[in-house]
Design goal:
Blueprint: H1 3-17, E1 23-28, H2 30-41, E2 46-52, H3 67-83, H4 85-92, H5 94-101, H6 105-118, H7 126-130, H8 132-145, H9 148-161, E3 171-176, H10 186-189, E4 194-200, H11 208-211, H12 213-224
Parallel strand pairs: 1-2, 2-3, 3-4
Helix pairs in contact: 1-2, 4-9, 5-9, 6-8
Length: 226
């Protein structure tokens, strides 16, 4: 169940189940990866794409980097040294950590909430930033359904099938948070998307839809009004 297969499922959902001929896709992080594969598989279905986030990848680092891209590569490498351990573990030994997380509410909360704390623009006030009830609801869904294992196994599934790097031609709008993991320059995003709109914010972190839902909604309307 990698992001390419999820894309096929979403295509079936949107067209055969819900009955839409065309639609807009909005996503970030893994959701962004799903939509890039959806655009690769069924570009005729998509009016356009709307992304946030820093995880647009290319297969190899090109040799014609701009100064902003060189800084981006350096910052992403530094970030991986301090923050990437969780992803490597989930991509290589997902079942090992899943047993522990599925057995301890405190462990599950620690594993998940650490990311909400670190990846926001207001880490000292992160509970208020997202809302205590929403954070607890998120944790409770994982705990009650025992689905932390399947969620983190997605990293392993995608790594094994090597489904991360794709180029898409569907018109793409980018809404970039001001405090995501590491700031991505416009020219880097344009290497793997048909970039037609770029908006840079001075607020928000990695979970932008939670932090600034009104801004995301307004930018979606602005991007696709015409």
């Amino acid at each position: 169940m990698d992001i390419a297969r999820i894309a096929r499922i979403f295509s079936t959902l949107m067209t055969e189940v819900l009955g839409y001929d065309r639609y807009v896709g909005r996503g970030s992080d893994m959701g962004q990866g799903v939509l890039m594969h959806l655009a690769l598989q069924h570009p005729e279905q998509l009016i356009g794409l709307h992304f946030s986030g820093t995880n647009l990848l290319v297969s190899e680092v090109p040799n014609d980097l701009s100064a902003a891209e060189e800084e981006f590569i350096a910052n992403s490498a530094a970030w991986m040294q301090s923050e990437w351990a969780y992803a490597l573990l989930q991509a290589t030994k997902p079942q090992t950590v899943a047993v522990s997380l599925n057995d301890s509410p405190a462990g599950l909360a620690s594993w998940i909430l650490e990311k909400f704390h670190t990846w926001t623009d207001r880490p000292d006030d992160f509970v208020a930033r997202y809302g205590r009830d929403r954070l607890l609801t998120n944790l409770t869904i994982y705990w009650a359904t025992e689905t932390i294992a399947s969620s983190i196994r997605l990293y392993a599934e995608c790594t094994r099938s090597n489904t991360f790097n794709v180029d898409v031609k569907v018109p793409t709008s980018m809404l970039m948070a001001g405090y995501d993991m590491f700031l991505m320059p416009r020219e880097w995003a344009a290497r793997s998307t048909n970039l037609v709109r770029w908006v840079q914010l001075d607020c928000g972190g990695h979970f932008l839809e939670w932090e600034e839902p009104a801004i995301v909604a307004a930018d979606l309307r602005a991007a696709f009004r015409t």
